[in-house]
Amino acid sequence: MCLGIPGKIVAVSPKEHMAEIETFGIRQRISTLLVGEVAVGEYVMVHTGYAIEKVNVAEALERIRLWEELLAHEGVFNEVPRSGDRPGTD
């Protein structure tokens, strides 16, 4: 089993098969080689620096909500910036 984190695509470098995502206010450069072409505004599941699955907005937001719930339960959410990944919060 792998652990994937949802991320919103904020920049794309198609020739390099790379993109920049944002999750919980943190930006990270990832490989898109496994999922093919992506566009700014789309969501992907990320594991160890690779996009492993494209997900629709509703599914991504539900997964983000679940992560926020888990982190809050574990008492670490106060250390993690709240997600800016929701539509209309850019």
Description of the molecule:
A five-stranded antiparallel beta sheet has the order 3-2-1-4-5, with helices on one face. Helix content is 19%, strand content 36%. The chain is built from one helix and five strands; from the N terminus they run βββββα. The termini are far apart. The chain is an alpha+beta fold and 90 residues long.
Distance between the termini: 32 Å
Structural class: alpha+beta
Oligomer: single chain
Q: Find the count of extended strands (DSSP E, 2+ residues).
A: 5
Largest sheet: 5 strands, antiparallel
Average of the residue pLDDT scores: 86
In DSSP terms (H or I, runs of 4 or more residues), the helix count works out at 1
Computed over alpha carbons, the radius of gyration is 13 Å
The gist of it:
With 90 residues, this protein is α+β, with helices and mostly antiparallel strands. It has one helix at 57-73, and strands at residues 5-13, 18-23, 26-31, 43-47, 50-55.
Key structural traits:
36% strand, 5-stranded antiparallel beta sheet, alpha+beta, 19% helix, 90 residues
